[in-house]
Design brief:
Two copies of one chain form a homodimer. By secondary structure, chain A is an alpha+beta fold. Chain A has two domains: 6-162, Creatine Amidinohydrolase, Chain A, domain 1; 167-459, Creatine Amidinohydrolase (Alpha-Beta Complex), CATH 3.90.230.10. Helix content of chain A is 37%, strand content 13%. The first copy, chain A, is built from 15 helices and 16 strands. In chain A, strands 1-4-5-6 form a four-stranded mixed beta sheet. In chain A, strand 4 (65-69) and strand 5 (72-76) form a beta hairpin. In chain A, helix 7 runs antiparallel to helix 8, helix 7 (167-191) packs across helix 15 (450-459) and helix 9 (271-290) runs antiparallel to helix 10. The longest helix of chain A has 25 residues, at 167-191. The radius of gyration of chain A is 24 Å and the shape is globular. Chains A and B meet through strand 2, strand 3, helix 3, helix 8 and helix 12 of A and strand 2, strand 3, helix 3, helix 8 and helix 12 of B. Chains A, B: One of its GO terms (biological process) is proteolysis. Chains A, B: InterPro entries: Aminopep_P_N (IPR007865), Creatin/AminoP/Spt16_N (IPR029149), Creatinase/aminopeptidase-like (IPR036005), Pept_M24 (IPR000994), Peptidase_M24B_aminopep-P_CS (IPR001131), X-Pro_dipept-like (IPR052433). Chains A, B: Pfam families: AMP_N, Peptidase_M24. Chains A, B: Its EC number is 3.4.11.9.
Chain lengths: 460, 460
């Protein structure tokens, strides 16, 4: 295991525990989880520790648990058997890890049950560990988003901590952002020589792996940007197409980045592509300019909707007054998702908790066409990291839907739209930290302007 | 989903079903499995279908099942809900997939239970699908390696099919081998400019991703080759060190490659490194030369042991008669694993079945120091694909073990060994197909000789 400076991480973890202790008065056990098998048990997927565990334990320890009790931290982990050293090398002992993270003691996992009385927890993702949670706590452990009782109190307390990032977290998030910026530049540089999407993906993911990071989510690298979560990479890159790349690095301690750029495969936007690109970019820039503490994220989403609606009116694709169009969600025909979300240890931070983290208490998701996919609806606070990711897409399932076509018949100029057939999907996404009186774009090292993007692609 | 030529795959699958039908007389249901969540449910690991399912269904269909009954094939899969098209695009309908793979019909999964009577199966890896297996078959489904009754009969029948690869499989395996060769060349070329192991890994994995393939197993790219399954990539590359890379591609249909090379980080072996390298290479070459139908794989393993023992005697590291040394497993101090294993849809093919596939019926693993990690003990047959991967390692857990040091005190020249301190781990591994009267090295495009390896690294 890569060794961290023990003092730095132990201090951070101690501060997090103290802040937690101000919010709850019961003990907490958090499990890290185990690997999931891939095609047979000895060939598993990479290990990813539970994000709540990572927040308080600092290190991605496999099959471990921590007991938090006020300011105290105890670690529960089994030392590797001697026979494992042939295959896995000498692993640090539990006592060494405990020291590194500032835990007062390390115990084998078998000791956990006797210390588990009255503890709250949050359900992990892997089924094997989840049954251990039930067994050791000797009670039902509901799924994280449906937690009850002290588990729910714990969830609320952890949300209030994880919503606003501390210095240690911000340092990691900046590392992830920096490598993600490099990955996108590598993807642009690889495009002119690429025959299929996978070649660009290889350049981007290779860059992330080379920095000893992993991927915060399945990469999207596609000429079919109209499929929002596209996971196919076999399409050829054909002249006149746009490539949409939504790729983010995750540091070895689990902190994420999430960035999208869209660029022409030839290095040159067509006039129609550039027109729409500039509309999306105007929304992106306007939203970022608005970010500061106290601003409602919903208002930023609505700003994106307005700027996109205005831009599409200016291009002749939509007709009518912008305020009326947005009132009717007409822009959602082309911008059907939310303008962004929380970012932290998870790319949609704390989405294991459903909307509990993303939505301020008392607020629920709207079912409106233009709001139903909005993942964040809270006033911004200093230390929050959010994405800003407006887009424009021609999604067949939306634009060919008879009910939607009929509903919006009067506001869409379908003939004019047909002239933009070479714009399947555009998204521009950056990671923005809310600062004391303003904002910091962590991914500002990656250009957004069309000319600068063209140059990066052409320089190859 | 990437579209295959429908005829080609349907014909192959039909032949596989017919061969299965000659061995069993009961229906079979095979499940593909589901994705495992990573840090929250909507952010899963990549999907990997069960290998047994892939063998008979041909395509990596998520959350699907097939019913095999004699020559008949029926597909059970739910069509994606209309709401998913925004996020995932238009997915092919079950009926379209059925046609592509030569299934007589497609049904929703809810129809499976009524057709499941008397069917055998093999347990999959993910827990959610495993409970569905139990529920739909309305009986216990034991882990694959401990299957009983008709499930065990099915396992034996599938082993006899999957042991020897058909033309379609060999075509895929050659694709995986070709991309793996390219990845290793890219890794060598990236070495002189690399500061840490991860940079070389990035070049290798990026090459595989660029070909729209994935990884058959967690890559090993390490200057600590003495840790056999090393998954750390943060160590600096320091002059005088060897880099061991065990990296293999897997095609989109699930077929694997598994290749290891070891090269000097400066592009120049030291005299001691070259001496040991040539011992390992001699074992590698001798084992490959011996491969043909009818030869016992155990004999090939023992040949590797002998060649390595002889080489270490010649270098003055071991003392005594080679036959006595091998009899006492003295070579296992430095070559503690088996010389190779089956390769196919799994990198250790069918290891979900324990040793049922690797070991001929009636044979069990030896507990001898030099044999206990041998994963394959069968006579070779035409169509088998095996790895040949002898190695030399200085594993602290072995060489510092007081009992082993005492047991082998008389045969190891510890002072001479100390002169080879710059040789922590060397492995040379290729994928070898057993042909009608000989063998074909699928990974022969990647050099093995020390001079050729040096040249590839130096050319950068």
């Amino acid at each position: 295991m890569e060794i961290l400076k023990p003092d730095a991480i132990a201090t951070t973890l101690s501060e997090r525990r103290q802040r937690l202790a101000q919010l709850i008065d019961f003990p907490v056990i958090l499990w890290s989880g185990q690997r999931s098998p891939r095609n047979y048990p000895a060939n598993p997927f990479p290990f990813r520790a539970s994000s709540h565990f990572l927040y308080f334990a600092g290190l991605p320890l496999e099959n471990a648990a921590i007991l938090l009790n006020g300011a105290s931290l105890e670690l529960f982990i089994d030392d590797a058997p001697p026979s494992s050293s042939l295959w896995h090398g000498e692993m640090p002992k539990g006592s060494e890890i405990a020291q590194r993270i500032g835990a007062s003691a390390a115990f084998p996992l078998s000791e956990l049950q006797s210390r588990a009385t009255g503890a709250a927890t949050i359900a992990v993702q892997d089924g094997v560990t989840r049954s251990q949670q039930t067994q050791i706590l000797n009670r039902t452990v509901a799924p994280a988003k449906a937690s009850e009782g002290i588990d729910r109190e714990l969830v609320q307390a952890i949300i209030s901590l994880r919503l606003c990032h501390d210095e240690s977290a911000i340092s990691e998030l900046k590392k992830a952002a920096g490598v993600t910026v490099a990955a996108h530049k590598a993807g642009m540089a690889a495009t002119l020589g690429a025959k299929i999407e996978a070649v660009v993906r290889g350049a981007m993911e290779g860059t992330i792996v080379a920095q000893n990071m992993t991927f915060a989510y399945p990469s999207i690298v596609t000429v079919h940007g109209e499929v929002l979560h596209n996971e196919e990479y076999h399409h050829p890159l054909q002249p006149g197409e746009l490539l949409l790349a939504d790729v983010g690095a995750e540091t070895s301690l689990g902190w994420a980045s999430d960035v999208t750029r869209t660029w022409p495969v030839t290095g040159k936007f067509s006039p129609t592509q550039r027109d729409v690109y500039d509309v999306v970019l105007a929304a992106h820039d306007a939203c970022i300019d608005k970010i500061r503490p106290g601003v409602e994220y919903l208002d930023i989403h609505c700003l994106a909707a307005s700027v996109i609606a205005q831009g599409l009116v200016d291009l002749g694709i939509l007709r009518g007054r912008v305020s009326d169009l947005v009132e009717r969600d007409a822009q959602a025909l082309f911008f059907p998702h939310g303008v962004g979300h929380l970012l932290g240890l998870d790319v949609h931070d704390m989405e294991d908790l459903g909307d509990l983290a993303g939505y301020e208490e008392g607020r629920v998701r709207s079912d409106r066409f233009g709001l139903c996919y909005l993942r964040l609806n809270r006033p911004l606070q200093q230390g929050m990291l959010v994405t800003i990711e407006p887009g424009f897409y021609q999604v067949p399932a939306i634009l060919q839907d008879p009910a939607l076509r009929s509903k919006y018949q009067d506001v869409v100029n379908w003939e004019r739209l047909a002239q933009f057939a070479d714009v399947r999907g555009i998204r521009i996404e950056d990671d923005v930290l809310v600062t004391v009186d303003s904002r910091e774009v962590l991914t500002a090292g990656l250009p957004t302007e069309a000319n600068a993007i063209e140059q990066l692609v052409q320089e190859g």
